[in-house]
Amino acid sequence: MPNYTDPFLKDILRRTKVIAVVGVSMNPVRPSYYVARYLSLKGYTVIPVNPGHAGKLLFGQTVRASLSEITQPVDMVDIFRRSEAVPSIVDEALSSFPNLCTIWMQIGVEHPEAAAKAQARGVDVVMNRCPKIEYQRLFGELRMGGFATGVISSRL
């Protein structure tokens, strides 16, 4: 499994403004829902993507059936789908967003070949991690819950 440095992950989370979340659920108890909601509350524009809910509203955004339906630039594609679905999502992301910066695969989601394809196009890739958890860890929110985050800070 790749080992991502904290500065690498922090840079991604700082530079990202618009995130397309593929496989988002409308069900508030599903991880894809609360991760997308959390990111939207942190100031990211979250564009939900799920063909089963296309046209509905979620976090103030219309749910899209596919990445190719998104007309605005996207900085990060966050994938909440099984690993075998990743190659087609990466292909669609690369063709839909010429200035895409990051492909992020959620915990349990990995596809080294698709990752290599994106990296060859200059896109940063994170696999088997959650941006919500990394945001909380790197920007001091987990510490307030008593977690040892490995990040040294003078803040409590």
Contiguous helical run count: 5
Q: What integer value in Å does the Rg equal?
A: 15 Å
What is the makeup of the main sheet?
Answer: 5 strands, parallel
Low-confidence stretches: none
Kindly report the spatial arrangement of strands forming the biggest sheet. Answer: 2-1-5-6-7
- Please tally the β strands and state the result: 7
Instruction: Name the helicity range.
Output: 25-40%
Distance between the termini: 31 Å
Helix and strand content put the structural class at alpha/beta
What is the global morphology? globular
Mean pLDDT: 92
N-to-C SSE series?
HEHEEEEHEHEH
Strand content: 15-25%
Summarize this structure as a short list of keywords or feature phrases.
156 residues, alpha/beta, 5-stranded parallel sheet, two-stranded antiparallel ribbon, 5 helices
How is this structure best summarized?
By secondary structure, the protein is an alpha/beta fold. It is 31% helix and 16% strand.
Task: Describe what you observe in this structure.
The chain is an alpha/beta fold and 156 residues long. The chain is built from 5 helices and 7 strands, in the order H-E-H-E-E-E-E-H-E-H-E-H. It has helices at residues 6-15, 31-41, 86-96, 112-120, 131-138, and strands spanning 18-22, 45-49, 57-58, 61-62, 76-79, 102-105, 124-126. The chain has a 5-stranded parallel beta sheet, sandwiched between helices. It has a two-stranded antiparallel ribbon with strand order 3-4. The longest helix is centred in the N-terminal third of the chain and has 11 residues, at 31-41. The protein is globular and about 35 Å long.
